[in-house]
Write a structure and sequence with these properties.
There is one protein chain. The protein has 1056 residues and is an all-alpha fold. Among the domains are: 1-113 and 137-166, no CATH class; 763-871; 895-1054, no CATH class. It has helices spanning 7-19, 23-32, 44-61, 64-78, 83-113, 126-134, 139-147, 149-166, 173-190, 193-212, 225-244, 248-264, 271-287, 291-305, 312-327, 346-352, 354-366, 375-384, 387-390, 393-404, 411-423, 432-450, 456-463, 474-487, 519-523, 531-536, 538-553, 556-661, 668-673, 676-762, 764-890, 905-914, 948-958, 969-982, 1010-1019, 1025-1030; strands at residues 453-455, 492-495, 500-503. A three-stranded antiparallel β-sheet has the order 1-3-2. A hairpin with a 4-residue loop joins strand 2 (492-495) and strand 3. Helix 3 runs antiparallel to helix 4 and helix 20 (393-404) runs antiparallel to helix 21. It is extended. The two termini are 80 Å apart.
């Protein structure tokens, strides 16, 4: 598969190929885009120009199949997003094909008109005679076959293609109907009967497929009134075209199509449309010699068209057609039972007429009638509509002669002038032949009422009133009688020996025909009943007479019947209410059942739609994911290719530069396999090599050039003076020759100039006169132009003044508008500033309230902490007392060396300051005190508490050289005091809550938070020696905690 190219690139390439005459290559280039997998992802804005150009090339090259494939692909892409695009392309395709047909037709006409005739007296050329001998076509026909027929075929294929692409899609329904109407006009314009039949089949097939594809997303809904109306319009256009082309079978099929669509319509079609429908049906029935349904169609047409007709002439014409069509329905019609010979029985007649009944019912439904029309019914309906008053006078007289009057001996003579008058009208002349059949039938029916037998010559004398071409021979009369007898309308026997026609009256020897009791009684003017009719109706007449007699003798019968009738009516009225309620209840049940079914169908459809949407969404997501992955992969491949191409291009450029220098000798394969690094390395090596070679060559040249130049100059010195002399001689010679040539040329030019001056002096007065004339003329023109220019300048100045005034007025308006906007903006700024000031004041009040609230909370916290501190002090005092009691029970104070130091570094510093007399004694500073735990009593032995530093100091103190006894008394007293003071200090290195952290002794800060400790430190006076000393830590101060610098940032978890 070829790589995908951008649509703009393909279009540009095709345009270039078209410009150089390569139309086939341009079409192939455009066709490649349809075979690409990325065709469906291409935007329609880019594809539409390509499709237009593609269609142009397909029409120019007669590539109908390729155009169909391309349009089908484009339809699949655009029908769900932009249906107007495919409509535009299809219409452009049809327009181009139609233009080609018109162009070919004009070329054919021009070709026929431009035939050169050498001999004007010669009617035909030898070539035309030869072609005429082998073909019946004329010159124009042959020219059309060569020039026009191929394009007509292409246009027909274009219509087929367009209909196949646009079919069965609700979004493309309107262009589909438009193309169908254009195709019908094409068949009608060029009289393409075969193509018209195929077009009708195509449209019929597409209509049948509507139900098959009803479950599709954009299926055609014939329940929609507008859609159904468009289909009806197309079928009526098809019917009109079929009638114009005289394709009556297709016209009848079109009528059936229209009838099927009308049965689906919820709304009655327009009267004008139905009138056209019945008019075309009447023409179809007339062509098919079905006079009965032809008259019924005219009757239906008149019922609709009489309200449309505007003039009395139109009313008279329509009424005349309705009346004459009804009169022309033969009495011996095809709807009478029996179509076989005279030997068939009644069952044979009925069995053979099943097909006729089916066809009759079909035609009846096409006319929208509930039952089959009859001649008598049509005439009765015409009389009810007062058609006799509106019809032509001769037709009224014809009706009276055929249907009202009884004159068997003069009927033909009276009707002949009327038929002659009717035959003069081309439209009504087609009714003359069926009227003759009706006249003959009436003639024999009326003769049978008067005579038992009639000579054949007498009959021929009666029908001799009909002139040619409607005259009759004895054989034709005999044939007519046989047909009437076979159809059951006449009971006749022909006696060829006596040359007479006998009307059978022997009721016991003749079996009555099935049609005898229906046709002849209804369609004939009765003078008297025949004997056979009297016999057949004897029982019915007897029953009627007896019933009348009983009612006359016993009037109670009528009274009882009337009472029974009233009782039946009463029961009917009583039961009507119950039946009405039952009908309403049943209707409600049916409506509810219908609603439930509709809800179920709607729910099912909704679920199916949701499932389809979910499947479509999943498929779309999968497709998008696949497309994204493919796009990412293609992008990565493109980047890799670009990088590789750049690398190869750089390598080629570098190799080329190296080759141009002449030092690199590599083949194409070696260059292709080398990368940039290798080439750079080779380039460096080449440069170094060239430098070395250049230096060596320069060294050799410098060495060689000194000696060579010296030798050249020695040899050149004697030759310079000789060359100088030779050059001076040549320059002098060239100077003399040039001077001589210049003098000669100047003399010749001077002589020529004198001749010209002498010749021009003669015409100088004329020249001056002409010049003055021209100058005067030009001066006048100049003055006129200057005047016009001055006027134009004044006009422009005035326009400019108006423009300046308008601009100044506009500037004033703009300044006023700007001032108004400025004032408005200042007002808005003032309001905004006031609002901001109000909001700021509100925030300040809120912050003050919040600060006050925080101060209250802080005071409460400090008060609570003070209470906790007091409680801790009391607890510490009790522990000190307990410790003192314990030490008193033990029996005295421990040596000073063994007494642990109490508190932290501040407490120890305070203790050291208070024991000033013992400073000279070697009291160990690293002795730790046993700090009591808040969770229990202090450890026994006085030494196990604290961290590792305290324990290490205790070990060192225990192993010292000084003995406890050697310590002086003040030191012992100080130690005892320190021991007593440190008894309340917590153990070093143990966890202490914040409220209990601090040094023992009164000058140590109390337990609590940072505020309490900060207040205690600030309370310590610098003038006190103890305070000063307590703030200066010593090397021995080690309470197990790391010293932290002051005034530095400490995280909340590290603050003490």
């Amino acid at each position: 598969m070829p790589p995908f190219a951008k649509p703009e690139t393909v279009l540009k390439r095709s345009e270039e190929l078209i410009n150089v005459g390569q139309h086939q290559a341009a079409l192939a280039a455009l066709n490649e885009i349809f075979t690409s997998r990325r065709f469906k992802q291409t935007p329609l804005q880019s594809l539409e120009p390509i499709m237009i150009r593609f269609v142009d090339l397909c029409v120019d090259l007669k590539k109908g199949r390729m155009a169909k494939e391309g349009l089908m692909q484009y339809k699949n892409v655009s029908q769900n997003t932009n249906a107007q695009s495919i409509e535009l392309v299809i219409k452009h395709f049809i327009k181009l094909a139609d233009a080609k047909v018109v162009e070919a037709q004009s070329k054919a006409d021009a070709a026929v008109g431009e035939i050169d005739v050498d001999d004007l007296e010669e009617s035909e050329t030898p070539e035309s005679m030869l072609l005429g001998s082998v073909s019946a076509d004329q010159n124009k026909d042959r020219t059309d076959r060569v020039l026009v027929t191929p394009w007509l075929k292409f246009l027909w294929e274009a219509y087929r293609t367009a209909l196949d692409i646009l079919r069965n899609n609700a979004r493309l329904e309107v262009p589909y109907q438009q193309i169908a109407n254009q195709a019908l006009k094409f068949c009608l314009q060029y009289e393409r009967k075969t193509e018209f039949r195929r077009l009708c089949e195509v449209l019929r097939q597409h209509l049948q497929n509507v139900a098959r594809y009803s479950h599709h997303a954009h299926a055609i809904n014939l329940a929609d009134q507008e859609t159904l109306q468009r289909h009806l319009d197309t079928r009526f256009a098809q019917l009109n075209s079929a009638v114009e082309l005289e394709l009556w079978q297709e016209a009848f099929r079109s009528v059936e199509d229209i009838h099927n669509l009308l049965t689906m319509a919820k709304k009655a079609p327009r009267p004008a449309m139905m009138a056209n429908y019945y008019e075309k049906l009447a023409r179809i029935f007339m062509v098919s010699d079905n006079n009965l349904f032809h008259a019924a169609a005219w009757n239906r047409y008149y019922a609709l068209a009489r309200s449309i007709a505007k003039t009395d002439e139109e009313h008279t014409r329509m009424a005349s057609y309705v009346l004459i069509s009804a009169l022309a329905v033969p009495v011996i019609s095809s709807n009478a039972p029996g179509t076989g010979n005279l030997n068939k029985t009644k069952s044979d007649f009925l069995q053979g007429d099943q097909e006729g009944r089916s066809r009759t019912g079909r035609l009846t439904s096409l006319l929208g009638l509930s039952r089959t029309p009859t001649r008598a019914g049509l005439l009765k309906e015409a009389l009810n509509r007062d058609i006799l008053k509106k019809a032509r006078p001769e037709l009224r007289e014809l009706y009276n002669i055929l249907e009202v009057e009884f004159h068997p001996l003069s009927i033909c003579a009276k009707i002949e002038p009327i038929l002659a008058s009717i035959s003069q009208d081309p439209e009504m002349a087609k009714y003359v032949k069926p009227l003759h059949s009706v006249v003959l039938t009436r003639l024999f029916q009326q003769l049978s009422q008067v005579y038992d037998a009639v000579k054949l010559s007498k009959v021929m004398q009666l029908v001799s009133a009909f002139k040619a071409p409607h005259s009759y021979s004895p054989a034709e009369i005999e044939k007519f009688c046989l047909n009437a007898c076979k159809k059951g309308h006449l009971n006749i026997r022909i006696d060829h020996v006596a040359q007479a026609i006998t009307f059978q009256d022997d009721v016991f020897s003749t079996d009555a025909h099935p049609a005898a009791s229906t046709s002849s009684e209804a369609d004939n003017v009765r003078l008297q009943a025949t004997p056979s009719e009297l016999v057949r109706t004897q029982l019915s007449r007897l029953a009627t007479c007896l019933d009348t007699t009983l009612k006359t003798i016993d009037p109670s019968i009528l009274a009882n019947a009337e009472a029974a009738k009233r009782e039946v009516f009463a029961r009917a009225v009583a039961a009507a209410e119950d039946e009405h309620k039952a009908a309403i209840a049943r209707k409600a049940i049916l409506a509810r059942r219908k609603e439930l079914l509709e809800e179920m169908a709607t729910r099912k459809e909704r679920e199916e739609a949701a499932a389809r949407a979910e499947r479509a969404r999943a498929a779309a997501e999968a497709e998008q994911k696949r497309i994204a992955e493919e796009a990412k992969k293609r992008e990565q491949e493109r980047i890799n290719k670009e990088v590789e191409a750049v690398r190869i291009e750089e390598a080629k450029k570098m190799a080329k530069s190296l080759q141009e220098r002449g030092g690199l000798k590599l083949s194409e394969e070696e260059l292709a396999n080398m990368d940039t690094n290798k080439l750079v390395q080779m380039q460096v090596e080449q440069i170094e090599k060239e430098k070395k070679e250049l230096a060596e060559r320069l060294r050799l040249i410098h060495r060689k050039i000194d000696h060579l130049e010296r030798a050249y100059r020695r040899e050149e010195a004697p030759l310079l003076s000789a060359d100088y002399e030779r050059q001076k001689e040549e320059d002098l010679k060239y100077h003399k020759a040039a001077r001589i040539t210049l003098l000669q040329t100047s003399k010749e030019k001077h002589v020529a100039d004198l001749e010209i001056k002498k010749r021009l002096t003669k015409i100088l007065p004329d020249y001056q006169q002409l010049r003055s004339i021209i100058e005067d003329k030009r001066r006048g023109e100049f003055e006129e132009r200057r005047r016009k220019a001055t006027e134009q300048i004044e006009l422009e100045k005035e326009k400019r003044r108006q423009q300046v005034r308008e601009e100044r007025r506009r500037e004033r308006q703009e300044a006023q508008e700007a001032e108004r906007r400025r004032v408005q903006e200042e007002e808005e700024a003032r309001v905004r500033a006031e609002e901001e000031e109000r909001l700021a004041e509100q925030r300040r009040v809120e912050e003050a309230q919040r600060a006050e609230l925080e101060a209250k909370k802080r005071a409460e916290i400090e008060e609570r902490m003070a209470k906790l501190q007091a409680t801790a002090d009391k607890q510490r005092q009790r522990e000190e007392e307990a410790e003192a009691n314990r030490l008193a029970r033990i029996g005295g104070a421990a040596p000073a060396a063994a007494a642990p130091a109490a508190g932290g570094w501040r407490s120890r510093a305070a203790a050291a300051a208070s024991a000033a007399p013992a400073a000279a004694s070697p009291a160990p500073a690293a002795v730790e005190s046993q700090r009591p735990s808040i969770f229990g009593a202090a450890r026994a032995g006085g030494g196990g508490g604290g961290g590792w530093r305290e324990r290490e100091a205790a070990k060192k103190a225990a192993g010292g050289d000084a003995s406890p006894a050697a310590a002086p008394a003040p030191a012992a007293a100080a130690a005892a005091a320190a021991t007593a003071t440190a008894a309340t200090a917590p153990s070093a290195g143990a966890y202490r809550p914040g409220m209990l952290r601090g040094a023992a002794a009164g000058n140590a800060p109390s337990a609590g938070g940072w505020r309490e400790r900060e207040a205690a430190r600030n309370a310590a006076s610098p003038s006190s020696p103890a305070a000063t000393q307590s703030q200066t830590p010593t090397s021995t101060d080690n309470d197990g905690f790391t010293e932290v610098k002051k005034n530095v940032y400490r995280p909340p978890g590290r603050r003490a």
